[in-house]
Hints:
The structure is a single chain. This protein is of the alpha/beta class. Helix content is about 65%, strand content about 10%. It is built from 16 helices and 8 strands. The chain has a 6-stranded mixed beta sheet with strand order 2-3-1-4-5-6, with helices on both faces. Strands 7-8 form a two-stranded antiparallel ribbon. The longest helix is centred in the middle third of the chain and has 63 residues, at about 305-365.
Amino acid sequence: MRSPTRYPYAALMVVLLIAAIGLAAWLVSSVNELHERFARESRGLGLAFLVVLIVLMMAGAIWLGRLAWRSRAPKQAGTPVPADLIQAAALQAEQAEGVIRRVGDEAVRAELNRELSEVKAGREHREFRVVVFGTGSAGKTSLINALLGREIGKTEAVMGTTQHGESHTYTMQGVEGTVYLTDTPGLSEIGSGGAAREQEARELAARADLLVFVLDHDLIRTEYEPLAALVRQGKRSVVLLNKTDRFTDADRDAILAKLRERLRGLVASDDIIAGAAAPRPIPVRVQRGDGSTETILEGQAPQLEALRERIGRILKREGETLRAGNLLLRAHLLSRKAQDQLSKERDQKAQDVIEKFQWITAGTVFTNPFPALEFLASGAVQFQMISELAGVYGFEISASNVRMIGTEMIQMLLKLGLVEATTSLIAGIFKSSLVGYAAGGAVQAVSMAYLTHISGETFADYFRRGQTWGDGGLQAALIHQFDLTSRAEFLQEFAKQAVQRVSSKLLHGTPKGQEQPASRT
């Protein structure tokens, strides 16, 4: 039964159709009347009117045809790159450059500057980097050989054939710009250098505009985790199930379905593709000239049409946006890498400062053990150490603030009973392994050096955090450092170093760089 609400719409369509027919009839009648008037005036004028009318009708038909064709033709132009993305990439590169300037290690700074130059050059040149990533046995090199149509690397059954990343120019029809295919070492390689090669592969993948992740079976945990991390990092990824010539159709479809299920939310279903980079040869019987037959193995062409089409479509439609986004990501990662190096250098300088003052404390107390607590209470070494640690982490701190937090530290050491606890621990170490040095203030010297060490580590953490003690305040920070360094192995090694240092001080004088500092307060 038809719905009664449809009748008014049908009636309206009939009225519009009648109106259109009437309008067309009126137009034809009007044009015909106009032509007759021109013809009555002059036969030539009537003929000219018809010519003009025909030309106008043809032009209108052509215009309507082109309009219809454009509306139906697929859009080939890529998505325009957001201006704020390009600006953000440039700004991030400037920030990375500022951090790199402060890196002290010349070799590391040179390497970081080289990477920065690549990022800057990437803004000027239309280049796309497609990185092939996966385990060593998945067929990455075979894939690149097949895509390029030539042998560029060894392919063997064993893992670890590709030792280092290698890039090759790849021409793709319809893609404007230069496409580079990069082969990478495999994941989860064992043996000498396997971990280093895997790290290189991850770094190359992090620089990719487009990632091709190659599998030859269902996805396992050691493959899922790096792929998921790269996708969450912002890497556009295509997953290739390789070597599908070894599966039955049913098994191939089942594995693809499983992959799409496991990667839902990470990789689009259309970006999970089956193929075979180097299909196994098939046996073929051939007949010789003498009439005998023999069986030979005939090579098969790669089955990568779907992968080629997908890569080309992505680069044509999304290439510029992917490239700009990748430049932003690379600049961000480079800035973080430089900041990590800077933090590493600062931490090493902080350790040097702490060691210097802990041995100054040990030498001073060893030569005069009786006023050990008074030496600690005076805070001269503590205050100087705080000032130098603040400078290491780039903070300017006044003498009054140094004295305030230094005094707070000494009071907390006494309040928590760490002086007595430390002396007891060190005495136990001496009884078990260093009895000969127990006399002459060795226990007091090592105890005060140890307290200087844990307070120095606590102050280093304070400045590293941006001048805050963290959750729990100073008390929790001190207890944490005490727990970290109260293991017997650490204390034994610390006591041995202390005795060697103070003995060397007594026999040879104060070592260079270990002089007693004057308090800045």
